[in-house]
TrEMBL record:
The gene is LOC104231705. Gene3D superfamilies: Ribonuclease Inhibitor (3.80.10.10). It comes from the Eukaryota. This is F-box/LRR-repeat protein At3g03360-like. Residues 310-388 form the FBD domain. Pfam families: LRR_At1g61320_AtMIF1 (PF23622).
Amino acid sequence: MERALLLEELPEIRSFRVWRLRYEDRFAKDTDLWVHFAIKVASVESFELGIIDTNRQRYELPQFAYKNTSVRNLALWYCQLNPSGSVNWSSLVSLSFGCLELTEGVIEKVLSGCPNLERLNLEGVGGIHHLEISSVKLRELIIEDYANENNDLELEILAPYIQTLKLFGYCSEIRIRQRNVASLVTAVLRVNFAFDDVEGNLDKECRYLKELLQSVAHVENLELGPWCIEFLSILELKGWHPPPSSRKFLKLNAALEQLDFPGVCSFLQSSSDLETLVIDWWYDYEERNLLSRYTNEDEQSRKFETCNFNCSFPHLKTIEIINFHGPLSENKSLLPLVKYFLKHATVLEKFVIDAIFGGSDVSPDYVKMTQQFLSFPRSSPHASVVFSYQ
């Protein structure tokens, strides 16, 4: 059937996708035909090849596939890359690699052969310890579930021209320094750096998060995931103060608990230029017991009660709490959080709480919350509070 397809006259094809292909080595020539058809015969603009790894047998991309001037978007999963010569993907704008092992030599060849690349996505990729991106056109780097087989090695990123960096999932250690990402405008840190469970690793994670936050202190837009938010309070208990930042937009992905307040408020104190704050309540983190490894319950309460959370937000105009869910009795931190921001955001214009609830009728609990929100004092005479339901 594959050979017949190559002989038929077909209309212009711009996109070709072979996904979840269960692969064994005996299918290599057939898979070569699909690749040849896509990039040589049809000259598609978008090609996605997703292999299901069977018995640890991986499809090796044929050498002819490394020379192509038509493909703009390329995604390769569970493939083996081994270019014998130079790579020429001159039209490529977006490149995604998933679940494969790379080496510095291969990734260097690939990037040198993609002069117009704008977006690089590495998901479940391992084997590299140094990623240097020198192209001024490559503006977005996404890394998800980076795996390093050697815990003593780290992935160092040198990308002075990228503007967006996104880190997702469970990762081995990734090292970035501010001078290496000097052009960065947006950083998304929805990542969990859970090192092996041995003594001293909590201190290592704290030290690592400090370095990570210092390296992105210059960005305008920052997004933090639950792991980062929980460790902020641990760092605050240890006496760490976040460096001053120039961020104007901050998104926190967590259903905040009262124990999160010290770290979050300390972090906000370093964000004097902040204009927009978004809190996505939908994200939940399974483990919330890290603080107990540092202090007992009585000591936690004493330290949190003596913390000074008073700070002003001279530029904060918009606050949004999205995907709020659950009854007020299970979200006791919401009311003091709203009250705190209304008191200290002196130029606030809009405070939106977007709630999700089940059933056809509005929960009486939400009606009660709305009434309480509207009764809180506001330091900004222009602040409006909107409570919406989905």
